[in-house]
Amino acid sequence: MEWEKILRDAVKENSIKELYLRKVPSLKTCEDWNKVVEVGTVDHKTKYAYYKGGLVKYGERLFFVTQERLDAVSPFRKWDFKNKIKVTDPELTAGEKK
Predict the structure, then answer these.
(1) How far apart are CA 50 and CA 48, in angstroms?
(2) What digits encode the pLDDT tens for the residues 24-82?
(3) Burial bucket for residue 12 (CB in 10 Å: 0-12, 13-18, 19+)
(4) In this model, does residue 15 exceed pLDDT 80?
(5) Cβ of 16: how many Cβ atoms within 10 Å?
(6) Could you tell me which residues are beta bridge partners of residue 15?
(7) Could you tell me which residue, 5 or 90, shows the higher pLDDT?
């Protein structure tokens, strides 16, 4: 799929475009949580969603893991997020102007 190729390299210099963030699939379960590699934390609010959690790589793909899931898995696996991911190109809300 085309989005898989785009999302594989979506995080550049600790930033990701909001459009790409909305397309990143959520990782809810996996075979081995110890094979998940931390990319960085995200704390970003869009018009319809609030992204609070972390971006991770599992295999070759990029995933978003919610803060609640990170907390649920933390007794079994230590998370070590070193980067904070900045979200760029946010959509403007109705009242804002460029």
Answers:
(1) 7
(2) 999 999 999 999 999 999 999 988 899 999 999 999 999 999 999 999 999 999 999 99
(3) exposed
(4) yes
(5) 26
(6) 12, 86
(7) 5
Contacts (Cβ under 8 Å, ≥6 apart) of 62 = 7, 8, 10, 11, 24, 39, 55, 56
Block residue for tokens 């989005």: 3
Measured distance CA(59)–CA(34) in Å, rounded = 11
10 contacts 20 by C-beta, under 8 angstroms:
yes
> In this structure, what token pair is assigned to residue 78?
């230590």
The structure tokens 């790409």 sit at: 20
